[in-house]
């Protein structure tokens, strides 16, 4: 109230400074009112004879309705230092103002401030219900107005798998806390995780919560990574019988036309790179035994590095379609075939 050394012009020292302060007093009192009505206020290190304190309290008293006086009384605590005291005492304090109004507060007289500090130390901090309700409303609106993604997760606050910027806290019944973020996973998130292992959910979580939602977006999904890692059985998830079941009838019908000139993944990459569309198209025509898994994996990862936004392209993009098909082939070769 008497200024800050970081802003020398704000420091109140002489009569002129007090006069300038008085001009702003009503504005300051109005600002402080919103704080005083919500939180306890402890006056420590001030004297009630201080002109600034008197002016602020007087301005507040003048604009406070009479029915709010009791609220202020429970909020204001004035600390009075008295070196002659052996312990401390708590009493009521009434301050009269020229207008005839009286402001009551609690007065604590003591000679040792450590008594107060230790009492404050034992007081556990708490959030007002009003603030919690505000948080609840904000979280609710966030979930409603933002598309769920793999980055949205609900977890315990001590869950080490979730970084600070990823954590979303919800205020609700414990029974409502489930892995809702999994249900928001899109098909592209699913495909990326097959290659990058970036979702950090268990295979059973993916198959139980995500799969029913993602399969609605496409009947063709790479599933064998999760099935191979899952602890539970999922007999209702449809499997394929062989490698050729991954391919369209058009590819199987025209495969013989490409057998002579494209013998393996390495040769196709060497011959047609950087024409990724051509490379992906031709790899799909190879027989299962002609596809080296490490070469295919290396190509897919390299392509993602060069085309990091591939999954942001339109759904009808031929390049995106071919890339997804190769991921399904990769998933089968690495996790599915016996």
Please describe what this structure looks like.
The chain is elongated and about 105 Å long. It has 14 helices and four strands. The model is unreliable at 146-154 and 170-180 (pLDDT under 50). α1 (15-36) crosses α2 and α11 (265-272) runs antiparallel to α12 (276-283). The protein has a four-stranded mixed β-sheet. With 338 residues, the chain is α/β, with parallel strands linked by helices. The chain starts with 14 loop residues before the first helix and ends with a helix. A hairpin with a 5-residue loop joins β3 (88-96) and β4 (102-110).
Summary tags:
single chain, 338 residues, alpha/beta, four-stranded mixed sheet, 46% helix, 8% strand, elongated
Short description:
The chain has 338 residues and is an alpha/beta fold. The protein has 14 helices and 4 strands.
* Overall geometry: elongated
Unreliable sequence segments: 146-154, 170-180
Span of the ends, CA to CA: 78 Å
Provide a count of the helices: 14
Radius of gyration: 35 Å
Give the ordered list of helices and strands.
Answer: HEHHEEEHHHHHHHHHHH
> What portion of the residues fall into strands of 2 or more residues?
5-15%
Largest sheet: 4 strands, mixed
Cross-sheet strand order for the largest sheet? 1-2-4-3
Q: What structural category arises from helix and sheet content?
A: alpha/beta
Number of strands: 4
Query: What is the helix content?
Result: 40-55%
What is the residue-averaged pLDDT? 79
SSE layout:
Layout: H1 15-36, E1 41-43, H2 51-63, H3 69-75, E2 76-81, E3 88-96, E4 102-110, H4 113-122, H5 129-145, H6 180-183, H7 187-196, H8 203-214, H9 224-229, H10 249-254, H11 265-272, H12 276-283, H13 293-306, H14 318-336
Parallel strand pairs: 1-2, 2-4
Antiparallel strand pairs: 3-4
Helix pairs in contact: 1-2, 11-12, 12-14, 13-14
């Amino acid at each position: 109230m008497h200024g800050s050394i970081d802003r020398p012009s704000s420091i109140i020292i002489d009569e002129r400074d007090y006069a300038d302060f008085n001009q702003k007093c009503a504005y300051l009192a109005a600002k402080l009112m919103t704080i005083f009505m919500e939180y306890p206020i402890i006056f420590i290190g001030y004297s009630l004879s201080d002109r600034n304190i008197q002016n602020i309290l007087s301005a507040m008293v003048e604009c406070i309705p009479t029915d709010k006086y009791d609220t202020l009384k429970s909020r204001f605590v004035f600390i009075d230092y008295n070196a002659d005291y052996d312990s401390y005492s708590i009493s009521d304090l009434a301050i009269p103002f020229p207008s005839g109004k009286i402001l009551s507060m609690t007065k604590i007289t003591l000679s040792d401030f450590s008594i107060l500090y230790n009492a404050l130390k034992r007081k556990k901090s708490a959030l007002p219900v009003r603030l919690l309700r505000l948080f609840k409303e904000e979280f609710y609106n966030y979930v409603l107005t933002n598309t769920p993604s793999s980055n949205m997760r609900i977890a315990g606050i001590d869950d080490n798998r979730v970084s600070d910027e990823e954590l979303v806290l919800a205020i609700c019944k414990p029974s409502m806390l489930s892995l809702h973020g999994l249900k928001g996973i899109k098909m592209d998130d699913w495909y990326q995780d097959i290659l990058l292992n970036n979702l950090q959910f268990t295979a059973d979580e993916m198959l139980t919560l995500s799969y029913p939602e993602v399969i609605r977006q496409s009947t063709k999904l790479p599933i064998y990574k999760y099935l191979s890692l899952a602890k539970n059985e999922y007999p209702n998830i449809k499997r394929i019988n062989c490698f050729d079941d991954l391919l369209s009838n058009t590819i199987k019908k025209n495969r013989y036309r490409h057998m002579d000139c494209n013998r393996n993944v390495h040769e196709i990459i060497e011959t047609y790179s950087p024409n990724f569309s051509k490379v992906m198209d031709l790899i799909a025509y190879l027989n299962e035994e002609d596809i080296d898994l490490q070469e295919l994996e290396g190509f897919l990862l390299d392509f993602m590095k060069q085309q990091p936004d591939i999954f942001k392209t339109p759904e009808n993009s031929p390049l995106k379609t071919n890339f997804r098909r190769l991921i399904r082939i990769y998933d089968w070769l690495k996790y599915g075939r016996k």
